[in-house]
Amino acid sequence: MFQKNMELELLIEDIGVNGEGIGKAGGAAFFVKDAVIGDRVLVKIMKMKKRYGYARLIKVLSPSLYRTKPLCDYYRQCGGCQLQVLAYAQQLQYKERKVRNNLERIGGFRFAEIEQDKQRILFHPVIGMEEPFFYRNKAQFPVGTDKEGKIITGFYAARSHTIISNRSCCLGADINEKILDIVISFMEQHHISAYDEASGTGLVRHVVIRYGFVTKEIMVCLVINGSSMPGADKLAAELQKLPGMTSVLLNVNEEQTNVILGSRVIKLWGQEYISDFIGNVKYRISPLSFYQVNPVQTKKLYETALAYAGLTGREIVWDLYCGIGTISLFLARQSKRVYGVEIVAPAIEDARNNARINGIENVEFFVGKAEEVLPQWYEREKIFADVIVVDPPRKGCDMKCLETIVKMQPERVVYVSCDSATLARDLKYLCERGYELREVQPVDMFPQTTHTECVVGIQRKHI
Ligand code: SAH
């Protein structure tokens, strides 16, 4: 049948996890990079397995109606945006379908017949953005040198650590470009070296920028392979001239690793944090803490989580994987008491500060793994919860955490997820043990990329 080097025509009908187009022929699926849903293409097979193959795009025979002109010149090389040539409405459709498919295929849920114990599972249309560009409040630019030895910064090419020189990214804030210009000219003038991953030598590894969309406060943090930087005060003096500059920091990372930030922060100028608002809650954000990157969509995400929590002011709420307490504080004003659990200690420090600056007193935060803290408290103190919120990283909840949730029997569980496959797996577990899925709301937190976020509402079954 199909063999390597064979050419064939395909209609692209779907998108793979890395944004590649998928077309079918003779019972096999083909993955084609740079092809878009709706394209009719001529491809050449590069690699063939039993039921699927990888093919290279030779020619677009008739372009999809959904193709759009990318905003960024580097979108094909850069690993950041996989979907920029696909019209935004189709990006949204794709994300909705992905969540639905995973919940059906992995979780065994059915949305077509929405009767389940006479209760409907509502699958809501994905919430998109009005302006799906320039939405990120955080950017991390790797610094390196090009073939001529010139210092460059930009983005990693897809699936590699080769830096593509580009200081203006259309997902990030406008101010990033200006900041990078200042940092790179400073490095050139003061002969500060860029880090070289292969040898582990050189000083400046990354420039991390955070921007408060509401407050307009800016943080610049240079990640360095050393414990000091010559002329650092001169750089700080330059950066201070930018309106909104609030925090200029160094972060020490001397490990040969892919992890961007090290654990030590050195203040060069200003505060060690910036502030921002989501709704009317003010958050203090330090360089090491997790903070949602798309503030406009985060508000919609949290409002949905709040609605699914069904609070009346009398509830005890546990917010697991709470980061800097964003969801905890969002829910606190409408609950009796909220307990937050998070593994990163500085994030919990931020969470406690955040509670204080908002005058919120009915919250308490614990440092530790959700799968350890929750069972410990449950076994020792027989703690109770009306509502449990979880917002785990991509790998989903630990089994021990899910087991404890089932033992605690909260009335409602709100699950915020950035990976609908692990979400589906965890929901299946809960729904086989006395819970039922009630509502699903995908929210597009990362336009132009294949990443998909959603929040679901789960209810305890009453016999
Ligand atoms: N709810 C927060 C953070 C969500 S991101 C918000 O919306 O901003 C997931 C968080 O889980 C991160 O802060 C990460 O540090 C934390 N985390 C990862 N593994 C964990 C674990 N096993 N136990 C508790 N927290 C964990």
- The CATH homologous superfamily of the largest domain is named Vaccinia Virus protein VP39
In this entry the ligands are: S-adenosyl-L-homocysteine
Say what the CATH topology of the largest domain is: Rossmann fold
Shape: globular
Number of strands: 24
Largest sheet: 8 strands, mixed
Compute the separation of the termini in Å.
Answer: 55 Å
Order of strands across the main sheet: 8-23-24-22-21-18-19-20
CATH architecture of the largest domain: 3-Layer(aba) Sandwich
Low-confidence stretches: none
- The radius of gyration computed from the alpha-carbon positions, rounded to a whole number of angstroms, is 24 Å
**By helix and strand content, what is the structural category?**
alpha/beta
What is the percent of helical residues? 10-25%
| CATH C-level label of the largest domain | Alpha Beta
Total helical elements: 9
What is the overall pLDDT average? 94
Tell me the domain tally: 3
Strand content: 25-35%
Structure commentary:
- It is a single chain.
- Helices cover 24% and strands 31% of the residues.
- It has helices at residues 88-105, 175-189, 232-240, 295-309, 326-332, 345-357, 370-381, 399-408, 420-431, and strands at 7-15, 21-25, 28-32, 40-48, 52-62, 115-116, 119-120, 122-123, 138-145, 151-156, 163-165, 204-211, 218-224, 245-252, 264-270, 274-278, 281-285, 316-320, 337-342, 363-367, 387-390, 412-417, 435-443, 453-460.
- It is globular.
- The protein folds into 3 domains: 7-62, Nucleic acid-binding proteins (OB fold (Dihydrolipoamide Acetyltransferase, E2P)); 138-278, OB fold (Dihydrolipoamide Acetyltransferase, E2P) (Beta Barrel), CATH 2.40.50; 294-460, Rossmann fold (3-Layer(aba) Sandwich), CATH 3.40.50.150.
- It contains 9 helices and 24 strands.
- The chain is an alpha/beta fold and 463 residues long.
- It starts with 6 loop residues before the first strand and ends with a strand.
- The structure holds S-adenosyl-L-homocysteine.
